[in-house]
Amino acid sequence: MADTLLYAKTHEWVKVKGNIATIGISDYAQGELGDIVFVEMPEVDDEFESQNSLGSIESVKTVTEFYAPISGTVVEINEALEDTPENINEDPFGEGWILKLKISDETELEELMGSSDYKFYLKELHEEED
User: Fold this and answer.
1) pTM tops 0.85
2) Which residue(s) pair with 114 in the sheet?
3) pLDDT band, very low/low/confident/very high, at 127 (cuts 50, 70, 90)
4) DSSP state of 109
5) What is residue 81's three-state secondary structure?
6) Fewer CB in a 10 Å sphere around the end CB: N or C, the chain?
7) Which CATH class, in words, describes the domain spanning 2-129?
């Protein structure tokens, strides 16, 4: 499934179905965060521009923001994460999805990376760290 997704450089993934984008964080991102204990999410009907903070993810190690990879309006949040935020660690591309946006500008999808480009991007990040 992860191969059919689009990715932002800030490690969010996007799955598009019609004009709705399901958004979560990548397996790489959840691994870097460690055990996730809380997710702060926006409200349904909140509007976001691409690159705006959607909320934050708290792990035992840190708190980090996650960002809108594209512009849109929140149409659904994953309410299960309120009780089981660890779903992001256990199944980041399935039960760990965070929210759904109604896409306001489909051309922004062209700015995201496919799976192979994202893997290359991660490889470059690790090379810079060495």
Assistant:
1) yes
2) none
3) confident
4) G
5) helix
6) C
7) mainly beta
